């Protein structure tokens, strides 16, 4: 009943006022079918779809299969004159999604104002998807169906705070944000100070054949001295990523992400990094073939296995993961795509033997 009431409120907000001439609605639905095989050395950490994406429990010599409604999303946006805009994005989840719960999530909810500075500066206040990283929080916008551990555990994603966006010209732009936390929203935190996030980016080329490169840096004291945490060391984040159009058929993408997080007093700082490289070939107007490889290393020197473990990252995993993915995308019609991919993960935990995970995923996404 509560869910129906919530939906009714959203619908009333969207449709009741004919005076909202600038109101825009959009939505998307993403569904998946996944199969995964864990080898005889598989432990509780997981790989592929069990490494934080779906609530499947990995175990030795096990198989996993399931159909998943990843999300159904409603986006509502309205402009008030020429300089003010409000937007909210609501995600509807079922029990088999990445969070393992049924309900609603406020993905984004913010207001922007255009400021008369230079070429025009945008000021944003609220919950928003951070301008950081190669992968999107909305799965259907990504080239691959599965996420890398760098996105799941290291990247700055959904945040709460204030942000400035400015375009110097048609090539260069930047974002500057002051946030509650680099570790996401909502989050159980009591930080003494706000954190900062900065992105500088460039784009060039014709539409449909465009290249870009970006650098994002984050810094902040994410813990509270009152709670007995270590606030003498800051959380640090860095990400360099880009996509390069080599010609009309080939694109090449890369990303290098680094994260260091202070743990409780007496604990080691948790440090991890990832490098990924992908290539995509456009076969024709409806088919593409893509391949990806990444290397993920968790070098926290014991932080996660002690009582000083941080809550943000991949459990007690200490070691490396190497992965390769081969996939294809078929464009059914405007706004509708089907993806198919195979992924192999080799996880080398310092505490257990090397483990292999084989994952096959089919994804269908529709935006309207």
What does this structure look like?
There is one protein chain. The protein has 368 residues and is mainly beta. Helix content is 5%, strand content 53%. The protein contains two helices and 16 strands. It has helices spanning 2-15, 149-154, and strands at 24-38, 62-80, 84-93, 103-115, 121-129, 158-167, 172-179, 195-204, 211-220, 235-245, 250-261, 270-282, 287-298, 319-333, 336-349, 355-367. A 16-stranded antiparallel barrel has the order 1-2-3-4-5-6-7-8-9-10-11-12-13-14-15-16. It starts with a helix and ends with a strand. Mean pLDDT is 82; it is low at 1-19 and 301-312.
Pick out its properties.
368 residues, mainly beta, 5% helix
Number of helices: 2
Number of strands: 16
> For the largest beta sheet, what order do the strands appear in spatially?
1-2-3-4-5-6-7-8-9-10-11-12-13-14-15-16
Rg value: 21 Å
For the biggest sheet, the summary is: 16 strands, antiparallel, barrel
Q: What sequence of helices (H) and strands (E) makes up the elements? A: HEEEEEHEEEEEEEEEEE
Strand content: over 45%
The averaged pLDDT comes out at 82
Q: How far apart lie the N and C ends?
A: 27 Å
Q: Which class best fits the helix and strand makeup?
A: mainly beta
Shape: globular
- Flag low-confidence runs: 1-19, 301-312
Q: Kindly state the percentage of residues in helix.
A: under 10%
């Amino acid at each position: 009943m509560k869910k129906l009431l919530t939906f009714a409120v959203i619908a009333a907000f969207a449709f009741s006022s004919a005076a909202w001439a600038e109101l825009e609605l959009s939505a998307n639905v993403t569904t998946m079918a996944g199969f995964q095989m864990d080898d005889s050395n598989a432990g509780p950490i997981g790989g592929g779809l069990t490494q934080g994406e779906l609530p499947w429990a990995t175990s030795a010599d096990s198989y996993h299969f399931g159909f998943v409604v990843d999300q159904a999303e409603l986006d509502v946006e309205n402009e008030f004159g020429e300089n003010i805009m409000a937007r909210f994005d609501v995600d509807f989840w079922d029990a088999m999604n990445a969070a393992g719960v049924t309900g609603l999530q406020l993905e984004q909810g913010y207001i922007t104002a255009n400021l008369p500075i230079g070429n025009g500066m945008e000021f944003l206040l609220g919950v928003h998807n951070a301008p950081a990283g190669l992968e999107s929080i909305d799965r259907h916008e990504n080239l691959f169906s599965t996420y890398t551990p760098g996105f799941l555990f290291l990247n700055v994603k959904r945040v709460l705070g204030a942000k400035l966006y400015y375009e110097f010209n048609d090539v260069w732009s930047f974002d500057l944000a002051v946030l509650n936390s680099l570790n996401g929203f909502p989050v159980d935190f009591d930080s003494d100070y706000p954190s900062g996030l900065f992105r500088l980016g460039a784009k060039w080329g014709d539409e449909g054949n465009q290249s870009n490169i970006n650098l994002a840096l984050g810094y902040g004291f994410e813990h509270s001295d009152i709670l007995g945490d270590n606030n003498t060391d800051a959380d640090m984040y860095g990400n360099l990523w880009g996509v390069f159009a080599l010609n009309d058929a080939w694109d090449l993408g890369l990303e290098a992400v680094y994260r260091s997080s202070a743990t409780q007093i007496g604990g080691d700082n948790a440090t991890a990094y990832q490098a990924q490289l992908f290539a995509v070939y456009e076969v024709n107007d409806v088919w593409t073939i893509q391949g990806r490889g990444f290397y993920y290393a968790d070098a926290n020197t014991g932080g996660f296995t002690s009582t000083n473990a941080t809550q943000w990252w991949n459990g007690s995993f200490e070691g490396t993961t190497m992965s390769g993915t081969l996939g294809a995308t078929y464009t059914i019609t405007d706004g509708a795509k089907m993806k198919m991919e195979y992924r192999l993960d080799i996880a080398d935990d310092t505490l257990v033997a090397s483990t292999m995970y084989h994952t096959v995923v089919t994804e269908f996404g529709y935006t309207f």
